[in-house]
Structures are given as structure tokens and as C-alpha cells.
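User: Batch of two.

Assistant: Item 1 of 2:
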Amino acid sequence: MLDDIKKTLWAAADKLRANMDAAEYKHLVLGLIFLKYISDTFAAHRAELVQRLADPKDEYFLDGATAQDIAAELEERDYYREANVFWVPEASRWEALRAAAKQPDIGKRIDDALTAIEAENPKLKGILDKRYGRAQLPDGKLGELVDMISTIGFGEDAGQARDVLGQVYEYFLGQFASAEGKKGGQFYTPASIVKTLVAILAPHHGKVYDPCCGSGGMFVQSEKFIEAHGGKLGDVSIYGQESNPTTWRLAAMNLAIRGIDFNLGREPGDTFTRDQHPDLRADFILANPPFNISDWWHGSLEGDPRWRIGNYSGTPPQGNANYAWLLHMLYHLKPTGRAGIVLANGSMSSSQNSEGEIRKAMVEADVVEVMVALPGQLFFNTQIPACLWFLTKEKTQRKGEVLFIDARKLGSMISRVQAELTDEVIERIGNTVAAWRGEPTPEPYQDIPGYCRSVKLEEIAQHGHVLTPGRYVGAEEVEDDDEAFADKMQKLTEKLGEQMAKGAELDDLIRQKLKGLGYEF
């Protein structure tokens, strides 16, 4: 049912886009969904307060209060702050905007509403994108968009409505990423990759960090995991950083729309040169950094403590940031913490500049826990094959071993150009890792040729510290049909002979037909 609603809404929103660029249009649509969310949440809490203020059994009861007294009490901001609800001024409430949707100045009215909301809620300062007054949409289309978004969650109770809005926001993010193609991958990691990271890391408590958080998908999936396993939203605290200002806003809205408390730093900024959380030591790190960035280096990073690992004391290669990301995340882990990182396949075997030395130091320091090779075509923005690195500062089980999983053949095509890992495959990978760690699982861990193998560090050293799973897991076992080789070859040769004879017949037939048409060769 909800899937149908999401698809219908997307089709309607896409139709209203007209000729506007998807990259620009997404900010209009997602900003309005967010505005409706905070307005609906405010209205629901206000309605609840009205009941509580009039209930003699409630601690908020106002004895002998007139309607005027209750109206004044409802304006007290503290009631909303303590429930983590944003205060929405009257002119900024969704119903006021909906009533004015057909007015020619609706764009300016939305911008004014967002400015007023920011002024009342310091946490939203600089997050709301005020671009509606200058939006390049045909006349009337912005008002139609307001009317369309008014239907989201309509008629549901407040809790359900918020959940529907959150899911629509997430769905639209994915659709915009697909529509933008290559650029879309800069703010969105496909859900099946995020789910795989979360399934292996199992982030159920403490501090969760993403140093290149895009639109915040890693955090949303972490919260879903916690809720699915009986935890509460407050069991983790969220820390993120994002350098792109518009994407930073998308992340803040994506988290706020789900009631997730977050710290994305004081401002958008480069993770390497303007680390917003320098003292953070996280329980879990999940990240999909941009692959193979060549212009990341700055002179101020020379001698940075983040680059030290084991016996290595140099710097990551200045022409490729892959290993800078790995070392940055290791640095920000607690001693008991775990990290999961998406990187290009080349990171597992490259020896360019100092990459081979750093990987050797990481293997020898026993901080590499699990390596997963992914199927191709999982991303919107690149066909570069990718892998997952899982790091930990101090292994409690399987010291001196690395688990290799080859999932390259486990993808399912969902369109002509896009693949994904199904929930069943993700569960299988998650269970494999959990069993290997010695956690309770349906089946005990065992090596499976072509899929997974636990490998000692000595063997990895013999392979030059290359961490490509295909090198270690071997070939998949093929069922033997017990037919003797000579008999099988005899059958295949006979079949080939029949097919060649048939081919010769068809060649003659084609020649005759062409001859009949006056074309002879």
C-alpha cells in the first residue's frame, strides 16, 4: 500500500517538474516535505496539549482555566522543546500555506515561513533552503506541488503520518539520485549497500559516526536496525560531517524528519582539513566516501596524528584519498569500536605510492576484520567495482584472522542498469559474519568455497598483503554429474557435428535465395 502511495506521489511530483533540472527541483520538493513534517508534528503535539491541559488527572491540568487561558498556555515554547518538537509560528503552519497555494506570491510566502521557523528554532539555523521565491517553475506549478504534498499522511494519526512522511522523503531521495545519475551518487548510497554495512556492524548503542554522510542514509538505516532489534531511538547518538552545503541540509532534514537527534558539526566542511569532531571516538563508523579523490591533500595535513598506524608513520598518497579515509576512520574509533567503509576495489590491492605499505601495516596491526567484494552496477554514479572494508581496533575473537566474503555473483538486477542485494542475501552475509565472530546464529561458521573463507595473517602476507576476497575464497564447488570424461566429450563432439551440418545447410539455402534475387557470390 505505502509503496503504491510513494510511486504515485513520485509520478505526480515528476510531472510538475516540467523542464527544471532534477538537482535543483529536489530541494524544492524535499524542503516542502520537511516543512509539512514539522508543521504536522507541531499540530499533533498542540492537539495533545489541549487535551492534557483540560484533563484533571494530568500533571498539565489548568484548574479553572478559560479558553483564553488555554490558548495563551499553548504559546509556551517549553512544552514543545521538552518533547523535541520544533515551534512553528502561525503564518508558517502548513494549513496557512495550503490556503495560499494558488496565490501568485506563494514562493515568497514559503521562504518567509522558513525564515520564521529558523528564527524560532536555533537547531534549524542555516538548514532550511529558501529558494522558492526564485524557483524557475511555470506559473501555478509550485501551488500544485503544495497541494500534492498536502495529501501525504493525510487522515492518519500523527505518529503514522510522520512515519509516512519519513519514508516518502527517503524514497524521493533515491528517485532523485537515480534521475541525476552520476551526480546523484554524491548524496545518496543505494539502500542495499547501507543495509549490508548495518547488518555486519549491528550498531545498537553508543556513538555512530559518518565522516562523509551525504543525505544521512547510514544513520536512518542504523536507527531502523535498532528499532527492529527492540532498541530505542535514544540508544545511539549521531555524529556526521558533510562538505557540500546543500547535501548537509538534506541530511539535517532527513534526520529531523525521523525525530533523530544529531550533530552534523557547526557547519559543512572538508573532513580532512576541517574535522568537525576532532575529539570524537565512535562505537560505530559507517561511510561511503567518494572513490579515488585526487585533490584532497593540503599542506596542513603533514604529520597529522590520524595517519599513524602500526609501524607506519608517513602520510597517505596525496593523489588518492582512499587510504586517508581508512586511517581517518580508524583514528576516530573507540578501542572497542568497529567501522564499515565502502571503497573502490582497487583499494584492496593497489601498491601505488604508499598504499601497499599502509595496507601491510593495517594487516600486521590486525585491524582488518572482514572484506566483502560486491557485485557490479550497485551505484547510480559509477560503474567502478566496489568492496566493503570492516575495521576494528581490538579484536575480541578471531585474532590474527580476516574473513573474506565474495558476493560478486549475489546481485539481482532491478533495472537494465541497476543491481541490488536482496534482503535474503544481506541476511546471509550478516549471519556469516556473526557466526564467524562466534555470535549465536542458525548455523555455525564454516568456509564455503567460492563464497567465504577465514584466512590467517601469515597467508595474507604470502600474497603481498592483497585483500581481494577472490584470491582467498577459491572457486565455487561444481556438482559432479559422474559422467566419464571420454563419454562426455563423445556426446559433445557429436552434437557439435550436427550443429555444424545444420549451419552448412542454412548457408546453402541463403546462397540459393540470394541467387534467385540476382545476387550471387
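Item 2 of 2:
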Amino acid sequence: MNTTNHGQSSRRSFTASGLSILFPFLLFSFPTQAKTYNLQELGADVAGKIKCTELINQTIQKASSEGGGTIYFPAGTYLTGPLHLESHITLHIESGATVRFSDDFNDYLPFIKVRWEGVVMNSFAPLINAQNAENLTITGQGTLEGQGEKWWDFHRRTTAEIRKNGRINHPSELQQLWAEANKDLFVDNYYQPTIKRHFFRPPFIQFYECKNITIEGIKIQNSPFWTINPEFCDDILVHGVSIHNPADAPNTDGINPSSCSNVRISDCFIHVGDDCITIKSGRDAEARRYNDPCENITITNCVMLSGHGGIVIGSEMSGSVKKVTISNCIFHGTDAGIRVKSMRGRGGVVEEIRVDNIVMNDIQKDAFIFDLFYRPMADEEVSERTPVFRNIHISNVTGNNIRRIGYIAGLKEMPVENISFSNINIVAQNGFKAETATNIRFHNIDFAVENGPSLLIANCKNIVLDNMRTKSPLKNQAIIELDKTNNVFINNCFQLIPADIFCKTKDSNVIWGNNFWNNVETQIIKD
């Protein structure tokens, strides 16, 4: 018996030790799966009558303390103030669920650090916010409702009073609180009328110095201010999001990454009261000190309806904007299509931009804008305050029912440089004007206009016009006009529809390549 017991003991010992050798991981416990916190089960009012702010934020804190988790909003309506996210948190808004944010301004106190139109300040907490966090996700098929109307109305009253009186005569308690919280804030003189408001509406979603962010599938509407606005963030995915803000709701941009890197925006539907998507990097000297560009950005497969601009870069680009691709998008009814804007005093560089495969229709103003005169400023010498636009390339664009094809407006001390347009077919009321630019190339272009030249180039140099034509030539009107422009190469042009005049020049130097003038009555007129 003793032997038998010893043998059994040995076998048990061998089995245990063998397992520990062969499968050492069995000695350790497996990590538990991240929890899901069902807000309805936790007692949230799903009728939208009682605020759930404290419950939601406490649940976020609890999940974060346990390593992360999902805050689940089942079908229903949830009334809340601002939500403060922590690392490894997912907000999942189920189909049929609406998270309705309070329109009581006091709910967004205390002030926290935000970036507002490129200026870092202390102001209202964004509706959904996080700082110095990672692995943040907002997903689902539900709705985020911003209830922005009271915010918009207060903004309108405030700006109207400043325009009328130059100041706020009787600031509210909140405006006095803002002034005290920002008494050391410095901005350039031109921005002082904005700062005089002492009231700055919160963005809907602003993540500040965060990384690994996903916003997917949800509908966002009626934002008080900018809608999705990551600041100083890295590794961002915005996919399949619908954004709806009224056309007259002030400054309610759709998606505005600022000083962010590695951003992917795709398959979004945007209908807003300002720019649909804007890429930014901060304002003036403060942003130049941060020196934090917006770079490595892809935007694809998006539809923009209404809005001031389809996709915009600037005007707050003092930290620079670099390495951006925009493709497979539709702009319908926006004021502008592609708009790049800045001004003296901003500094920064916009470069390495690619735009491809775009359809525009019913554009209220310009299809393309490259404007270094966003605000008129006095002439100055080249310095860190001088903005730069260069190395921007646009291809495969179709446009109809457009007011004006667009313009380039460079600075005399810093012309716009190295811009190309390829395979562009646009029907518009008015043509395209390039002024104060160098190394501009047009390849396979058909600009059909109702008034004036299809293309006017003034005070430029080093221009290539390759296969330039119009399907709607105008009587006694040159298709191309050149004014004080040097080193222009015109090649491979064949006007398919008979035209009276192809080119009119004044104080310009033209080099002619291989062209075919069978359908042109007069090749060139020199003033």
C-alpha cells in the first residue's frame, strides 16, 4: 500500500510538474474581458427628462479604474452635460438611442483648457472631451444631439452688440468669469474684436493631446460650435459619420483636425453651417511656438452638402499643414469646393497636398481657392510671419453649375508656387484667375464659361498650358488672357469648337509649342 501510494503521489507530482513545464501560462490568470456598462440597467432615465451627467461620468471613471470598458447607451433618450472620457473608454450609442446634451451653459463649468479657433484658452468644457488620454472610441448607429440653438442665439446677440458698440456693455456672469480665467491671454490686434465676446461656445467633440481615436457610424447634429475637433492628437479614424447642422448655424464646421497627425476621414456625410472639413494647425505666434503641424491626413469617399467650403485648409495654419490626400469626394451646394486660405502674420507652410477624383455641382462661389489675402494686412518683409503655399496638385475634377472656377492670390513677397491642375472639366459662369504665382501648370483642361476668359494669368512666371481648351468659346473673347506674365509655354492645344481668339497678351512672354489652330480664327492678340 505504501508503494502504491508513493507511486500515485509520484504520478500526481509528475503530472503537475509536467504541466508547469509544458504549459507555464496555466500558472497565470488570463486577463478578464473589458466590461460593458449598460446605462439603463444602472438607472439612467431613458425618457430624457432627468440629467444623467453624474451617472455617466462616474461610470466612465469606474470603467477607467478597471482598465477600460464600454459605456452602452441602449435605445432611449439620455439628457446630460459634458462627458469627460478617460483612456480605454468606448461610448457605444445604440440605434434608437439619442444622447441629448444640456443647453444650460452652467452645466459646462468649470472652464477647462481648450483650443478655440486656434487659440488655447480656458473656456466651456466641450460636450465630449478628453485630455492626455488614449484608446478613445465613439461608435454605434445612434444620435448625438447638441441642442445648439441657445448657444447660437447668444453668440449672435454678443457679436451684434460688439459690432454696434465696440464692446459688451453689461457682461454676463459667465463672460466676467471667462475674462478672469483668461486675463493673461494674448492675441494679435486683428483678433481682438473676437476676444471681446468673452463667450466661446464649446466644440461638440474635442480631444486634446490624445491618441488612438475612433469615431464611427454615429449621427451628430446641432453642434454649438465645431463638431469633431481633435487638437494635438495622433492616430485618428473618423468613418461613416453623418453630421447635420443648420445652414445658418454659425461656425458649425463638420470635422476639424488641428495640429494632428495620422488622420483618416472616410465615408462621411456632412451638411453644416460652415466648412465641412477643415485642416488647421493654430493661429499666429502661439501656434508657431508650438510648431505642431497637421500632417499625414487622408480624406476619401465623403459627400458634402451645403457648407461654406467642401474641404478647406486654414486659415489657422501657423503650425503648417503637410502631406494631405483628398480623393473620391462629392461637393454639392457648398460655397467653395477646395479652399486653401491664409494671410500675412500667420506664417506656416501648406505643402504636399494631393486632390483627385472630385465631382462638384451647384457651387455658390468658387471651385478652387488659393488665397493669401484671407484678411487684408499691411505689406511686410518675408519672415516667420509669412505664409507659404507650395506643391499642391489637383487632378480629375468635374464641375457643373459653378459661379466661378476660382483663383490664386499670392503675396508679392511670397508668390504661390508649384501648383498643377490636370484633367479638369468645369462649366461655370466665370473663369479662373491666377495672380502672383510661379510654376503653375495646366494639363488637359476644359473650362467653359459664360463671361470673360476661361483663364486669366497676371503677374506670374513659369506657366505651362498643355491641351487647354473650352467647349463654349465666346464671341470676340480670348480663351486665355496673359498680363505681365513671363515664360509661358503653350503646347498641344487643339480647340475642338471653333473660336474667334485663343490668346490675348499684354507685357507677357509666350513660347509656342506644337498646337493646331484649324478651328481658331486668331491665334494671338498682343496689346
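The two ends are 122 Å apart (CA to CA).
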